Amino acid sequence: MMTVLLPRLALAALAIASIGFWSPADETMRLGVSGPNFTVDGKPRFLILVSDFDALDTPQVDRDFAYLASRVDGVRIFATWWDFGPGRCPLRFSPGTVIGVDASGKGVVHPDRLARLQSVLDSARAHRLVVDLSFAADTVEGMSSLKAGPDGGVCKPSGSAARVNWPEYGSAIASVARALKSPRYSHAFFDLQNEWGHPVNGAKEADLLGVVRTVRAADPQRILTISSFEPDAVKHAGYVERLGLSALNFHDFPRGRGWGSRTATQVTSFHQALGTRGVTVPIYDGEPDPSGYGKGLEEFETSLTGARRSGAAAWTFHTRAGHQLEKRGLVDALDPDARRFLDEARRVASRATPPAHLGVN
Predict the structure, then answer these.
(1) pLDDT score of 94
(2) Which residues, at least 6 apart from 259, have a Cβ–Cβ distance to it below 8 Å?
C-alpha cells in the first residue's frame, strides 16, 4: 500500500492552507465526456491544448496561463517530470515530482509538491483552461529499474525494458486522485502513463489495468486516459475497451517528414476501429512533435486541420519550449513562430468541420 510523508490530516491541512478558503460556489469549470466529445460545463467543445510540461516549476504560471487563455483551451502538464543536465544522457531525476518512493520502496506523495500542483490547477481553472495532468513512472527515482549514472544522467535502456513497481505507482497516483477529488479540480483529466510500452517503462496491459482500477476506485468520476505511440488502430481501440479508458489518447507515430498529413488518416482509422467494437469515446491527439521534420509549424496547421476535420475531440500543440521552466515562463520560452501559431490556432480549427455522422461537435 501507498504511504505519505505526513499523516493524512496534516496533509489535508497543508493543502487547504496553501490554497486558501474555497467553497463549491467558486467552481466554474467541469470537464466531461459525451459520446465522442469532450464537454466543458456540459457543452461539447473541440479542445486545443499546449505542452507546458514543467508548469509546476515555472515562477510565472499565472502570466503564462493568462497568455494562453485567449489562444487555447488547455495545457498538458506533468505531475512527474524530469530535470535536465549536460552529457550524453541529459535526463535527470527530479526531486520535484508530486509522487516519489520512500526508503522502503513504497510510493509516497510529497505534500509540498501536491500543494503546488493544487495551486497550479487553481490558476488554470481561474483562467478557464482544462488540464491534461500526465504521469510517468520512469521519471520517478526508485519507481523503476532506471538508475542515474555517476554524473546524474539517466540513460534509456539499451537492452530489456525498464521494470516498474506498478502497484506502488498506481497507489501513489490514487492518493493524488483522492486529493483532487473536489469539484474544484474537475477541469483536469489524467494520462496515467505517458507513452506506455516504451522501453523506459516497459508497461504491459495487465500492469496498466491494475493502475486504472486503483485510480478509478479512488476517484470514480475522473476522466482517465493512457497515451500510446501504438499506430495500429485495431490494437489501440482494443486497449481502450479492455482498460475501460475515457478517451483514446494517441501520440503521432510514425514520426518524420510529413507526419502532419497523416493525422487525419490516423484519427479516421481510430474512429473505425472503435466503432467496430461499439465503443464511443473522444479521440485525443496528445503529442505531435516539430523537431527536425523539415516543414516546421506548417505541419502543425496541417495536423490540427486534419484532426478536427476527421473527428478528433482534442489536439495538443507540442513544443519542447515547456520542458525546462525553472527560471522563466512558457511565454518567454516560446519562439516567435510558435507564438504566431498559437495566435492563429483557434482560427485554423474553426475552418475545419468534422463529418456530421461522427457526432463530433
Answers:
(1) 97
(2) 252, 288, 289, 293, 299, 303
Evaluate if residue 279 carries a pLDDT over 50: yes
Confidence (pLDDT) at 291: 59
Q: How many domains are there within the chain?
A: 1
* Position 301 in a domain: no
Q: Is 119 contained in some domain?
A: yes
Q: Is the pLDDT of residue 9 over 80?
A: no
Q: Is the peptide bond before 44 cis (omega within 30 degrees of 0)?
A: no
SS3 49: strand
Query: What tens digit of pLDDT does each residue of 194-207 get?
Result: 999 888 999 999 99
CA distances (Å), 232 to each of 20, 101, 250, 265, 308, in order?
A: 47, 34, 11, 12, 20
The residues, any chain, with a CB within 8 Å of residue 67's CB and separated by 6 or more, are 330, 331
Report the percent of the chain where pLDDT is more than 70: 90
Residue owning grid cell 520560452: 333
The x, y and z cell numbers of residue 165, run together, are 513497481
Q: Helix 166-179 vs helix 111-126: angle between axes, to the nearest 10 degrees? A: 50
| CATH number, domain with residue 189 | 3.20.20
Which residue segment(s) compose the domain that 75 sits in? Answer: 8-20+47-227+319-350
Give the count of beta carbons closer than 10 Å to the beta carbon of residue 107: 26
